[in-house]
Every structure is written in structure tokens, then in C-alpha cells.
Design goal:
By secondary structure, the chain is mostly beta strands. Strand 15 and strand 16 form a beta hairpin. The longest helix is centred in the N-terminal third of the chain and has 16 residues, at 206-221. The two termini are 25 Å apart.
Length: 960
């Protein structure tokens, strides 16, 4: 039998566990059999593509092979339809924001659930410390080298079997398995370096900074002082004594420090993986060990992982099959402060004065004024901090999966699954006592332990039967999932010497915390499938889930789906054309749940010391009517295959409506509040179901094998996908909710910017201008008279990717492009970094303003005339700092050569492949003003986090 792995109508190759699942169909010749490809769906179940009535997109091992990222969530952008991803930052090992068919909630969980080998696992960040709370990623403890395929389930029929958690999508990860045959060994290694993927705004040189301040003072005083005159103190009496002293110090400074150069380096990266697999008719095995290390371009930021996996399958009898999957890993992350922390090196390059030195004449670090250990503008020397402080997390993860399958009858199978997952996260924050945040404390140490124990139990009964051309299948599923978390944290201050870093050396207790929480859910589900010769197909499912945290009477939710399809290519007159190999129409609809963390109970928190007596505080507002967020996805699709699926086309329309959105409603603070994700309390709000939200759009996918031959012939395939998204709030009880930069309102998206619209600079006098009505027409230089208006969304409205693969005589070139259009990014620190004089004396800001601010000789500049104290609120929130996130990126390029045959004869090797690879090598931003990575638009703001990386690597794969 000639097994072919073909490009499918769902837009990808499907093969699982290193074994191609095939069913015999009409023979092409006496020696060639048409293969029906198979995709993994819910709870480890498999379906051929011809049987699918829902929407699923898959990436296989070929499409993710050797991609130099730490975790699988960073691989999805542009490779499957309907999925947008963006890195929260360039933190090595950090997580990616993943959105499947838009934003399914306003205040709830918007990330999909992750299923590994049929079992849900922890995902996202589990950290609690400043820095690690948003940048650690438990999925990074799973080695991508162990992944065989990733399937994204998007519609009701595909996801409803997961019930209460499926509203934001389901990502199914299948890991590699052994297959029959002699032992196969594979060793792979790649190594290279990292650079910054997108150039950021530059910082000031000392000369530029002095020039800018000179013009700022002269504009304000209507004078013409030189740098030398200001250095000599001639502004005395014309500005405050403090400002004059600072100006004199800056203008007379001999230093010119580039604070980014102080902390920047080339980031090194390497990955090594060794695996063995094999087996016989009774027993198959797969084992692998992996070592991964990734370093940022900024000092003291890295991710390291060691992992091991073993996967065994034993056919004990004709009826009994036992499979085990065991994964164990340990990782270590060093991360850095972001946002407005003075220890943030990305902020320091814009906030530290270039006229301050970084080092003393003897080469030691300059720590500023001995009286307060601060630089001239009270900032920190980030070079010293990165050498002497740290924020780190060490994560241990163990995952086991026991799967017992017993064939009761020929067509009836029972499966039992038990899968525990243990995660232990140790976090340490150390601030030395000599400089930086730890100076005022005399040293600071925070240590915490965060332990999760999750387990999943499944009982599954599968039935399938064929009656002539009638095919019937059904499943009964029982699932229970529980998570148990224990958290301990202690903080100490004041240490005798910087060389002592353990908690016991800090002599003053500064705080402690200890919590424990459990949550559980269980559910029952039934699925059914019928098809007539795969011409007419019908699917249906029902699931009832019970969630522990809701009140009695509201704990349960009922979820269901129905789907239907018809493949006209199965009709005889179409078969006879020999051109059309698939023409399937399909549609689905259903009701899903959305993950929720809300708690409806009114509780007391017993954590107050009142005169050394135990006391309680009240939080949360009792709301017995609080219920599930539910999602109703409608999907209709057309799958076309031509020339025996050498060319495939998929087109889909989806409409996903979320009901009973959970959001914060305002209350009097005396009535209580809610618990934030970090454990703090926020008074004056309650949780309630407040409205509805709709995500809708189209998805298109095209794949073609243009040339197809053996190794010594030209092979060329191309593919492209495009998705659209419209996100809209359709009901919002209680009315519009506005902030200084965003809005929630009927008719707009759930991630909409709400800003005054920048109209540029008045060429006559350098004043800032805004549109009065927030859109167009009349302008004003009075910020308070300008109206706010909706100015776009975080999310791209058009996004996707394209790929091509060409090979000839062992040489192979693979290219993957991604793109996105319609999204926006807001620079949430620009009111400081483009302050037009308001903060410029203290915080220099972006050096990009040089040569582009208004002067009588430069009236067409983009930035207003700088004025000491600011120019008419020019730096306040507006579209001046809102950028188009439209981009095209070469996300991955790989060129390699594979040695086989006579060249390796006698060596004992089956194949040797050498390659060079580049990741995020080229990015084109259509908005020339954008100086941030465009894929951060899912977050909406930049927060001056670590920059996203591009990587260049050399690698070798050896099999024997």
C-alpha cells in the first residue's frame, strides 16, 4: 500500500503518533490505494477528514519542525485560519496571547483550553511575583520536539464535547508515539543567536538631549540662550532654582551614556533533542530527552528547560491495550521588570539621562548621589541592577497519562483515562541593599512556593458499526477534573551584606501569605455520528457540566451541538469527472460554555490583625443569579478538492455569539468587592451577567502541490490562508463604560480604543491640534474641548499566512509568512517619552523627536514646539500615540540539505540533515511610526516590555 500524506481541505496535513491512519478506498491501480486522512478530535477520538462536519485546522510535525521557540503556543500565528497570536513580550519562555475566532468574553477567560493526548493541562502563566506573574508560561515545559500535531478546534461540533470550557476554542496537542519496527534513534541539535526583531524608538545622545532642552527653555522664555550659557547658570531667576540646578548639571556634563548599550547583548540560543522509538506487534515505545536554552538580548533574562518523556503502548491481548505517557521537566526563568518600574531596562533608556555616567573612572558601577543612591534624576543604574538583582522562577512539572482500552465487542470499546499533573513553581525576587528598589529596605527578598495538583479522570464508551453504506458511531463520556492549589510566600527586608541572598538572612519580617484553593468540575457527554457512504453526514453531541464554584441551582450547564454535511464528490457523475475529488458542504451550530473564574459568594477573609486580635474583612457580593457565560457558534463551510486533492480550497463563515457576559458593575465600596487575579481585593464592584458579544467573519485556505516527485525531482507546494474578524458588543446592560483610552459600548468591539483624534501641529505656531468632534473637520488647540471617539480595535480584522516548500535532490527551502491588517497598538508610556517639555527635564524620552519637532525653520514637523512644563497638554492620550499594526513578516525560513543513500553507506546512519534557519527574520510595518512588534496588538499596549526576538540558527538532524 502506498501511504500518501496529502494536503487536506482543512488546510494542513494530518497524521498522528507517527502512524498514518488509513482506510482502504477505491484503488488507483493494483498497487496504489487512496488514503483517507485522519484528524484528532475530542477525547482522543479520530475522524477521517471526509467524516468531519465541523471546523478544525491542524499543524503537523513537518510544519513545526525545529522552529526555535520555547513553547507550542508561539507556533500558531499565520499557520492556521481563525487564530491570532501575539507575544506578551520578548521574554524567553514567555507565553503568547492566543485568540481563536476573536474575543469571546469581556472580563472572563479569552484563551483556549489545551488538550495533550486527550487530557486537559494547565496553561498560561502561573507566576505570582512581580515580573513572573505575567511572563512565566507553563506550556513552555512541554518540549515542542515531542509534538506530532496541533489541532485547533473552532466550531460547536468540534468543541462542544468539552462543554463548559470550550467557548474560547480548544487546542489539541498530540505527542509523538512509537511505531512498529526496529529501534530508530534521532539526534537533533541547533544553535544560534538572537537579535531584536523590530527596531524600537531610539534614545537621546547627550548632545541631542542638550539641544532639545535648550530649545525647550528658549521657546518658553522667548529667548536665545546657548548650551554654554545655560551651563553657566544664566537661567537663574528665570526658572525654579531646582530646575536651574538640573539644567546646569546636564549642560555641563562631559558624559554621553547610551543606557541601552549598557544592558544589551547578543542573545544565545540552543536546543538539543534525542529520541528513540520502535516496537513490534505487541509493544511500541517512544522516549526522548530535550535541553533548551534561550537568552534575551538584555542581560539577565533567559529561559532554560530540561525535559524527558516516555510513551509506551502494550497490546496485552486481542481485546486489551494499555498505554502510558509520562512527561517530566524542569525549567528556570530569569525575567525583568517592565512598565514604569525604574529597574526596567527598556524604560531606563528613555528615562535615564544620557548625561549621567554608567561607571566610575575605575570601572566600577556609578551608583549616583551617595546620600540616596540615585542618579541625577532619581533613576537607577540598570546595568548595576541587572548584575546584582534578579526575578526568577523555577518550575517543575510532572504529567502522567494512563490509558486502558478494552474491546468489549467487535464494534464496542471501553476506555479509561487517568491523568494527574503536578506543577511546583518556586519564585525568588532579590533586590540588593546598595542601589535600586532594595536601597530603602536595606535589601529585599521575596520567596514563594506555588503548588498545583490537577487530575483528570475519563470513562469513555465508543461504538461504531457499518451497515452496508451506512456508518454509525456513538460515544458516552464521563469526565471529572479537579485542581488543588497551595501557595506560600514570605518577604524579608534588611540584610547585612549584598552577598547574602537567602530569606533567613533578612532580619526584618516584611510580609507573608498562605492560601489554598480547590476547584472542580465534572460532566457527562454523548456524541453521535451518522453518514451514508460519506455522502451525507450528521453529527450531534450533548454535555452537562457541573462547576463547584457556582451556587446550588446554578452549578450546572447544558451544552450541545449539531452538524451536517454533504460531499457531492461522492456522487457517481462527479467521480467520473476525475477532476473534483471533494465538494463538501457542511454546517454546525450549538451551545458552549466559557471558562470563568468569577465567584458568586459573599465571603469573609480572615487576614486582618486588629490590635493583635484576629479580624475579618468582607469581600465579594453575593449574587446567586450569576451564571455561565455561554457561546452559540454557527459555522458553515465549503471544502473543495481537485486532481485527487493536489489542490484544496476551504471557505468558511462563522458567527459566534456570547451571552450572559460577566463584567464588573459599580457599587459602594462598603458593599464589598472582588478578588483580583493577584489575590488583592478591589472594593466597589460586583460581578454580574451584563450583555452579549458577537464575533463573526470568513476564513479561506488554499493549498496546492504544484510539482510532486521523488527526491531527485522538483517538489513544490504552496499554501495561503486568510481570516476576517468583526467583534461587536450587541447588548450591554447598564450602558457604556468609558476610560481615558478605551470603551465598552453597543455597536463596537470589546477591545476598542476611545481617544481624542490628533490633528497634527499648527504650522503657524507649533501648537498641538485635535479634531473637535473626534473624527474630522474643525480643529482646536484646547485638549479639553476635543471629544473622544472610537478609534479602532486591538485586534486585526484581516490576518493569516502563506507558505511555500520546494525541494530538489536533497536540497529543501521552506518559507512561512504571516500578516495582519486592521489592528491598532497604543504606546501607553508616550505621555512621558513624547512629553514635549512637560517631563523632558527629568525624563529625556524618545530621541526620535530630534529633527521632528516644530521650530520656525521646521514648521512641517510631526511633534509640537517643546515648552518647559508642556505645550497645552499635547502629550495627553490621543491618536498621536495610536499606531496601525498592519504588517507582513517572514516568520520562518529554513534551507537545508539531507544526505541519504550511498553517501552514508557503511556509516550506520539512515539520514543526516544540515540546515540554516531564521525566525522572525524580516518584518515590514506599514505604519512607519510604529516602533514596536506588530503582533503585540492583541494586548493593545506595549508597556515597554522586552523586545520580541529574531533568531538565526544552524542545525543538524541525524537518524540511525
Amino acid at each position: 500500500m502506498n501511504v500518501k500524506l496529502r494536503v487536506l481541505s482543512a488546510g494542513a496535513l494530518f497524521f498522528l503518533g507517527q502512524t498514518a491512519f488509513a482506510q482502504k478506498a477505491k484503488k488507483d491501480t493494483a498497487s496504489t490505494t487512496q488514503i483517507e486522512e485522519v484528524v484528532m478530535v475530542g477525547f482522543g477520538q479520530k475522524k477521517t477528514v471526509q467524516e468531519i462536519t465541523g471546523s478544525a485546522s491542524t499543524m503537523t510535525a513537518k510544519s513545526i519542525e525545529d522552529i526555535p521557540v520555547a513553547s507550542v503556543d508561539k507556533m500558531l500565528q499565520g499557520r492556521v485560519t481563525g487564530v491570532q497570536t501575539g507575544s506578551a513580550s520578548g521574554q524567553p519562555g514567555g507565553f503568547a496571547n492566543v485568540r481563536v475566532r476573536g474575543i469571546s468574553s469581556i472580563n472572563g477567560v479569552t484563551s483556549p483550553i489545551y488538550i495533550v493526548d486527550g487530557v486537559r493541562v494547565a496553561n498560561g502563566s502561573l507566576g505570582t511575583a512581580n515580573g513572573t506573574s505575567s511572563l512565566t508560561n507553563i506550556l513552555a515545559n512541554l518540549s515542542p520536539d515531542d509534538v506530532e500535531s496541533i489541532t485547533v478546534l473552532k466550531d460547536a461540533v468540534s468543541t462542544a464535547v468539552y462543554g463548559a470550557d470550550a467557548g474560547a476554542g480548544v487546542i489539541v496537542i498530540t505527542t509523538k508515539s512509537g511505531k512498529k519496527g526496529k529501534p530508530r534513534f534521532n539526534l537533533s541539535f541547533n544553535s544560534g543567536f538572537n537579535q531584536q526583531a523590530v527596531d524600537m524608538a531610539r534614545n537621546y545622545s547627550a548632545g541631542e538631549y542638550k539641544t532639545y532642552l535648550r530649545d525647550m527653555f528658549n521657546n518658553s522664555l522667548n529667548s536665545n540662550y546657548s548650551i554654554e550659557q545655560i551651563a553657566a547658570g544664566q537661567l537663574s531667576g528665570k526658572i525654579s532654582a531646582s530646575a536651574n540646578a538640573q539644567a546646569v548639571g546636564i549642560m555641563s556634563s562631559p558624559y554621553d551614556t547610551n543606557w541601552l548599550d549598557i544592558v544589551r547583548k547578543d542573545g544565545y540560543q540552543q536546543n538539543a533533542d534525542f529520541s528513540i522509538s520502535g516496537g513490534n506487534d505487541k509493544f511500541t515505545y517512544y522516549a526522548a530527552a530535550n535541553m533548551f536554552e534561550q537568552n534575551s538580548i538584555i542581560m539577565n533574562s533567559f529561559f532554560k528547560r530540561l525535559s524527558y518523556t516516555t510513551k509506551l503502548s502494550y497490546q496485552a491481548t486481542d481485546k486489551l491495550k494499555i498505554s502510558t505517557d509520562f512527561q517530566i521537566s524542569h525549567s528556570k526563568t530569569r525575567t525583568l521588570s517592565d512598565g514604569g518600574a525604574f529597574s526596567n531596562p527598556m524604560l531606563a533608556q528613555y528615562f535615564n539621562r544620557p548625561t549621567d555616567p554608567a561607571r566610575n573612572p575605575d570601572g566600577s558601577w556609578y551608583l549616583g548621589n551617595p546620600a540616596n543612591s540615585r542618579l541625577s534624576n532619581n533613576q537607577f543604574n540598570v546595568g548595576y541592577l541587572l548584575e546584582n538583582n534578579y526575578i526568577q522562577a523555577g518550575t517543575f512539572r510532572a504529567f502522567a497519562n494512563l490509558n486502558v482500552e478494552y474491546k468489549i465487542l467487535k464494534n464496542l470499546t471501553y476506555r479509561f483515562v487517568f491523568s494527574p499533573e503536578y506543577v511546583n513553581l518556586e519564585e525568588d525576587t532579590y533586590w540588593n541593599p546598595l542601589h535600586g528598589d532594595g536601597y530603602t529596605y536595606g535589601g529585599y527578598q521575596r520567596t514563594s512556593m506555588n503548588r498545583y495538583f490537577n487530575f483528570n479522570v475519563q470513562n469513555i464508551l465508543d461504538y461504531s458499526q457499518k451497515f452496508g453504506k451506512h456508518n454509525v458511531g456513538a460515544s458516552l463520556i464521563q469526565e471529572a477534573y479537579k485542581t488543588d492549589r497551595k501557595f506560600l510566600m514570605a518577604t524579608g527586608i534588611t540584610v547585612g551584606t549584598p552577598s547574602l541572598e537567602t530569606l533567613s538572612n533578612f532580619i526584618v519580617p516584611y510580609g507573608f501569605s498562605g492560601t489554598r484553593g480547590t476547584s472542580s468540575r465534572y460532566g457527562y457527554a454523548a456524541t453521535g455520528h451518522y453518514d451514508y457512504d460519506k455522502l451525507i453526514l450528521v453529527d450531534a453531541s450533548y454535555r452537562r457540566d457541573v462547576l463547584s464554584q457556582f451556587t446550588p441551582g446554578s452549578k450546572a450547564g447544558n451544552f450541545w451541538s449539531v452538524g451536517a454535511g454533504v460531499d457531492l464528490a461522492r456522487l457517481n457523475f462527479v467521480k467520473d469527472m476525475n477532476v473534483i475529488s471533494m465538494a463538501k458542504f457542511r454546517a454546525s451550530y450549538g451551545k458552549l460554555g466559557n471558562q470563568v473564574t468569577a465567584n458568586p459568594y459573599a465571603l469573609y477573609l480572615y487576614d486582618i490583625n486588629y490590635n493583635d486580635n484576629a479580624a475579618a474583612r468582607y469581600y465579594n457580593v453575593y449574587n446567586p443569579n450569576l451564571s455561565w457565560e455561554t457561546v452559540n457558534p454557527f459555522n458553515v463551510g465549503l471544502d473543495l478538492g481537485f486532481l485527487r486533492n493536489r489542490i484544496t480550497v476551504t471557505a468558511e463563515y462563522y458567527n459566534k455569539k456570547t451571552n450572559d457576559l460577566i463584567y464588573n458593575l459599580p457599587l459602594s465600596p462598603s458593599q464589598g468587592g472582588i478578588t483580583n487575579d493577584n489575590g488583592t481585593l478591589r472594593y466597589g464592584v460586583m460581578l454580574d451577567n451584563v450583555g452579549t458579544l458577537v464575533n463573526k467573519g470568513f476564513e479561506f485556505n488554499v493549498n496546492a502541490e504544484i510539482f510532486k516527485g521523488d527526491r531527485n525531482q522538483v517538489n513544490w507546494s504552496v499554501g495561503a490562508n486568510l481570516s476576517t474578524l468583526k467583534n461587536e458588543i450587541t447588548e450591554l446592560y447598564g450602558g457604556t463604560v468609558n476610560t481615558a483610552t478605551t470603551t465598552l459600548r453597543v455597536g463596537e468591539g470589546a477591545r476598542s480604543f476611545y481617544l481624542r483624534k490628533w490633528a497634527g501641529v499648527d504650522s503657524a505656531n507649533g501648537d498641538p491640534l485635535w479634531y473637535l468632534n473626534g473624527k474630522d473637520g474643525e480643529t482646536t488647540n484646547d485638549y479639553n474641548k476635543a471629544q473622544q471617539a472610537v478609534q479602532g480595535s486591538f485586534l486585526s480584522t484581516i490576518f493569516g499566512g502563506a507558505n511555500t516548500s520546494i525541494s530538489y535532490k536533497g536540497f529543501a527551502l521552506d518559507l512561512q509568512f504571516t500578516y495582519g491588517f486592521g489592528g491598532k497598538i497604543y504606546d501607553n508610556w508616550a505621555n512621558y517619552t513624547y512629553s514635549d517639555g512637560q517631563y523632558s527635564l527629568n525624563y529625556p524620552g524618545y530621541g526620535d523627536a530630534m529633527g521632528d519637532y516644530w521650530t520656525p525653520q521646521n514648521t512641517g514637523a510631526s511633534n509640537p514646539k517643546p515648552m518647559y512644563g508642556g505645550n497645552k497638554l499635547s502629550n495627553q492620550a490621543s491618536t498621536r500615540y495610536l499606531y496601525d499594526a498592519d504588517y507582513i513578516r517572514l516568520s520562518n525560513a529554513r534551507f537545508g540539505y539531507t544526505f541519504t543513500g550511498d553517501f552514508l553507506k557503511g556509516s550506520g546512519l539512515n539520514s543526516v540533515q544540515v540546515y540554516v534557519m531564521a525566525n522572525n527574520a524580516w518584518t515590514h510595518n506599514f505604519d512607519d511610526r510604529l516602533k514596536f512588534d506588530p503582533e503585540t496588538n492583541i494586548s493593545g499596549t506595549t508597556n515597554l516590555s522586552l523586545p520580541v526576538l529574531k533568531s538565526y540558527l544552524f542545525g543538524v538532524n541525524v537518524s540511525f
